[in-house]
Amino acid sequence: MGNAEEALRILPSLNPLLVLMDLMLPGMNGIEATRIIRRREQEEHRPPVYIIAMTASVMEDDREQCLAAGMDDYLSKPVRRNQLLEILAKCRPVDRPRTTPRPSRESLSSKSLMIEEPLS
């Protein structure tokens, strides 16, 4: 996504199971974006998306702020493959059905990131 506002606009139509939330987004930081996502989920009675904070900071206060804002987990950059896989294993949706079809590649902006191969 280009910025937090764009991500917040299209997030409901994507119905993702997981969001990797950078804390240093242009315009709005990841903590505020997460608060908005959580508020909308409650207002619209939608199941919560699993949100993983991503930041270059390793301060314990940052981790606590992320979790207090409603994020589910925290990854520091550079992301290490094993750490990412451990977190992904924790967020596997057991009983959350996908209510909307996956978007086609053409419907996603060129700034979107789709991981198709495992990280090295």
Summarize this entry quickly.
The chain has helices spanning 4-14, 30-43, 60-69, 81-90; strands at residues 18-22, 50-55, 73-76. By secondary structure, it is an alpha/beta fold.
Write up what this structure looks like:
With 120 residues, the protein is an alpha/beta fold. The protein has one domain: 3-Layer(aba) Sandwich (Rossmann fold), CATH 3.40.50.2300. Helices cover 38% and strands 12% of the residues. The chain has 4 helices and 3 strands, in the order αβαβαβα. The protein has helices at 4-14, 30-43, 60-69, 81-90, and strands at 18-22, 50-55, 73-76. It has a 3-stranded parallel β-sheet, with helices on both faces. Helix 3 (60-69) links the parallel strand 2 and strand 3. The model is unreliable at 100-120 (pLDDT under 50).
Highest-level CATH class: Alpha Beta
- What's the architecture, going by CATH? 3-Layer(aba) Sandwich
User: Which fold name is given in CATH as the topology?
Assistant: Rossmann fold
Tell me the major beta sheet: 3 strands, parallel
Order of helices and strands: HEHEHEH
Share in β-strands: 5-15%
Physical arrangement of strands within the biggest beta sheet: 1-2-3
By DSSP (H or I, 4+ residues per run), the number of helices equals 4
What is the approximate shape? globular
Radius of gyration: 14 Å
CATH superfamily membership: Response regulator
Structural class: alpha/beta
* Helical fraction: 25-40%
Q: What's the mean pLDDT score?
A: 78
Low-confidence stretches: 100-120
